[in-house]
Structures
1.
Amino acid sequence: MTKRTAAKYKIDRRMGENIWGRAKSPINRREYGPGQHGQRRKGKLSDFGTQLRAKQKLKGYYGDLTEKQFRRIYAEAERVKGDTGENLVGLLERRLDAVIYRAKFVPTIFAARQFVNHGHVTVNGKRVNIASYRVKEGDVVAVRDRSKQLAIVLEAVGSAERDVPDYLEVDHNKMTATFVRTPVLGDVPYAVQMEPNLVVEFYAKN
């Protein structure tokens, strides 16, 4: 379970953006950063600062992965043929917690990680409790029968805050989601602009 669960909106305020597009984000009320000197932090970022910010924003979006986890995913994206930035997004979206979040089975990516860790999810009929588990095209992810009436699930399914992307086929009556294909950047419904190309530049230089 992520350390950030109780303080997830600090990420929004640190970035100065409502990165999940949630109505409760403090950025909707005040656009400056957290802390005593947050209001004085506006300034032009260097190239390094811009790249670092892009990396922190993308990493934070997926439940604020540790640097070690994120760098490992990046290294894999680099090894695969094709555009490294697109590969990175595809690998992140194949995480089981990301699929649970995208399918609207839970309201936040943080809740998705906890939901998976607590054993509420199956993949192709087998219980999986590892949030970083990587789904493959054609895999069927489902909420276990005993978990379908949980308040957190009912809240998420009934929310109009997000739409399900078309690389998933979701049946909210059966609480199943089929991972149809690995998305590219343009397919992913980020609430703010993500710049994986800058993440690639960051790691190329550091």
2.
Amino acid sequence: MKLVDMGITEFVDVLGSDAPAPGGGSASALAASVGSALTMMVAQLTIGKKKYAEYGELMKQVLKEATEVNQALLEAIDKDTEAFNQVSAVFSMPKETEEEKAARKEAMQKALKLAAEAPYDIMVLASKAITITGKAVGKSNVNAASDLGVAALNLKSGTQGAWLNVLINLSGIKDEAFVAKYKQDGEALLQASCDRADEIYQAILEIV
């Protein structure tokens, strides 16, 4: 059964169990998906309202974009766990001969790269969602302004959480060029995303 198909209680029970996955990466994707879902809600609470008629088309676009990124984030919940499971599977590979040890080492490096890429993809999606959320600030139903603020907080949390999962997997990767690229790109993405999320939150504080 896919994680995304579980009920909330069931997912939280699995998350809180001694099973190593799902873990922080899937939880980060979930947090970000909650954030983008709130942006979707705010857009729908604005579309069709006479008071916000001038922003109707913008909110339709926000809804469309947020819906697309939300779907990708939901899929990322399982993708992150699947990537981690590939790392776990390597530990069951034989390591008696030198050939087996070499094959195991190669498989581990490949699995770790996938495990680093999965949460990085979550960061990219969350960053897109933050940008989309920013479009709605000051142009959406004021009665739902607090929900946009919560959206920004969840998206920031998802971004930061995903970054931690990128880093912990990069720590075991021997490919220095791969590590350097993901650290450089990830740090830049993290900074830009968190700064934008903070701007949204501060703007909402002035509205509510």
